[in-house]
Amino acid sequence: MIFTMSEEHQMIQKMVRDFAKHEVEPTAKERDEEERFDRDLFTKMAELGLTGIPWPEKYGGIGSDYLAYVVAVEELSKVCASTGVTLSAHTSLACWPVYTFGTEEQKQEYLKPMARGGKIGAYGLTEPGSGSDAGGMKTTAVKNGNEYILNGTKIFITNGGIADYYIVFAALEPDKKHKGTTAFIVEKDFAGFSVGKKEKKLGIRSSPTTEIIFEDCRVPLKNRLGEEGEGFKIAMMTLDGGRNGIAAQAVGIAQGAFEAATAYAKERKQFGRPIAEQQGISFKLADMATAIEASRLLTYQAAWLESEGMPYGKASAMSKLYAGDAAMKVTTEAVQIFGGYGYTKDYPVERYMRDAKITQIYEGTQEIQRIVISRMVMQS
Ligand code: CAA
């Protein structure tokens, strides 16, 4: 358990907060409306080292840790949840499995350019017929000489279409179910790979979400990640950390909505005094602040556990579950505090509320988090 941040963490927090305020926030509303990803913004994040926070310098990172990483996702999400998840999916879902399971050559070839931010990463697990039941995937891989041939379709891919590298899971021996799954690093230019439909979404609209399609997609043997049959374990372990990135996104969204609602409540007068001084609103603000603080502590704790090399799967599922629900509640209350104005696009709280919803769904629904947590609780 930690209650203070080191000087390094505070420095990173301040740097990202300044960057978010000056570079990310000014275009957040417009990018949401236009459903537009801004690659230049990603490049600016890379110039600050944000695209490779936890990785050693020899792999293109800045050699910090997972706490610094979640702090960065939180600060970005405070002004733009789309930018937050772009970084989260890139770091947790693409860079992490290469760092953890990749060969030295794969780390040099794929992790380094992703950590430096010249390349963007994504993760492909979900399929039209397998969401929560991730083991039920239908995408196949067949070994053929020096290659694997992949066929199938993955959906709901965060960073789809903008990513250069995709961590993809396919059934090499479908009869063996989980134990027959293998992971691959697929480049966007590989023959047989294409990007399909781009989703039109309720929230996180400037973070592209697409299908990715494999039609006899040829993947060199050297691009297998981990061993044959290790894919499901890699997918699950990747999500263990990824879920805390989503928790950080949820904390940022909730904090952004809370700050907007507090400022408005202090300024808005009804019945002759600011609504913040009226109990119906002040008690809401108290509950919102408490939920955010609890979410943040769970999130930072899970990140700290991971940085210290301790088990963090349960902590991460808990942080995602709690922070996602808190973000939905806090953002809904923020809209309520703004009243009719909150329901319009003149204020940012409706965007926060739309963005919060996805944190209860992706990287494992809240129902899946409860499965993960309950299994771990029963084991201990
Ligand atoms: N770490 C290591 N191994 C793990 C593991 C973990 N966290 N979780 C499961 N495993 C292993 C098990 O030990 C087991 O291994 P053995 O076969 O050797 O015994 C194997 O994996 C199968 O495990 P289960 O029997 O628990 O598998 P299950 O079919 O019951 O599924 C589940 C478990 C937790 C429900 C899992 O399917 C799951 O997490 N589902 C949700 C998927 C998900 O989060 N999808 C989101 C995709 S990413 C996204 O949202 C888009 C994006 O881009 C942001």
Description:
Helix content is 53%, strand content 16%. The chain has 380 residues and is α+β, with helices and mostly antiparallel strands. A hairpin with a 2-residue loop joins strand 2 and strand 3. The two termini are 19 Å apart. Bound molecules: acetoacetyl-coenzyme A (CAA).
List keywords for this structure.
binds acetoacetyl-coenzyme A; 380 residues; alpha+beta; four-stranded mixed β-sheet; 10 helices; four-stranded antiparallel β-sheet; 53% helix
What is the arithmetic mean of pLDDT?
Answer: 97
Radius of gyration: 21 Å
Helix and strand composition category:
alpha+beta
- Secondary-structure element pattern, one letter each: HHHHHEEEEEEEEHEEHHHH
SS strand fraction: 15-25%
Q: What gross morphology would you assign?
A: globular
Number of helices: 10
Task: Give the names of the bound compounds.
Answer: acetoacetyl-coenzyme A
Helicity level: 40-55%
Largest sheet: 4 strands, mixed
Low-confidence runs of at least 5 consecutive residues: none
CA-CA gap between termini = 19 Å
**Spatial strand arrangement across the major sheet:** 1-4-5-8
Number of E-type strands: 10
Short structural summary:
This protein has 380 residues and is an alpha+beta fold. It has helices spanning 7-34, 39-47, 66-79, 81-101, 104-116, 231-267, 279-307, 313-338, 349-358, 366-379; strands at residues 121-124, 140-144, 147-158, 165-171, 181-187, 193-198, 209-220, 224-225, 269-270, 273-274. Acetoacetyl-coenzyme A binds at residues 89, 93, 123, 125-126, 132-135, 156-158, 178-179, 232-233, 236-237, 239-240, 313, 362-364, 368, 371-372.
